[in-house]
Amino acid sequence: MTVQEDHHGADVAARVERRWAAASAAIIVVLALLAAFTGIHQATMPQARVETTDPTRLHLSGEFVESNLGTAAEPDGTVTVRAIGQQYSFTPSCILVPAQTPVVLRATSADVVHGILIQGTNVNTMLVPGYISEQFMRFEKTGDYLMPCQEFCSFGHEGMWGKVKVIDRAEFKSRAKNGGRLSCVGE
Ligand code: CUA
What we know:
By secondary structure, the protein is an alpha+beta fold. Helices cover 27% and strands 28% of the residues. It has helices at residues 3-44, 169-176, and strands spanning 70-73, 79-86, 89-91, 94-98, 103-109, 114-117, 124-127, 133-137, 143-148, 161-167. The strands form 3 sheets. Strands 1, 2, 3, 5 and 8 form a 5-stranded mixed beta sheet that branches. Strands 4-10-9 form a 3-stranded mixed beta sheet. A hairpin with a 2-residue loop joins strand 2 and strand 3. Residues 85, 88, 114, 149, 151-153, 157, 160 line the site of dinuclear copper ion (CUA).
């Protein structure tokens, strides 16, 4: 092996190295631009529909007064559930819904940020004070589902649990026929 060949090999290695370095730098620049674009775009183009509420007046009037919390059977056959998260519980702590029925969950927080997660389903939303979170859900099978708070909300967070009880459609209908708001608290 001559000295010249050695130099040639070193040149090739240096060139390849530079190419890889350039490719890596380009990937980083593209990712940074992508992150900046989506971040700025999201901030300048907010969601088409944002519902707000005054967290300090939830208990006084409006949709989230205590007498309106729980499950309501709508005239069109769907079901609306209204709930509040607060340190460290959900109201109602047991949500009653019928199986095989479209359910709209509407919830908000009375104090800090909480989260609702229904185990075994894709229902998972944050509860932010001042905003109403809406989530569509449908349960095919009857049974009990655990509903932990999934957002750290201070020292009582791990004790903040609720439950969703899914019952038979016919049973729900007979319980709902008197109107009012239903829940399974104490059952
Ligand atoms: Cu509420 Cu964690």
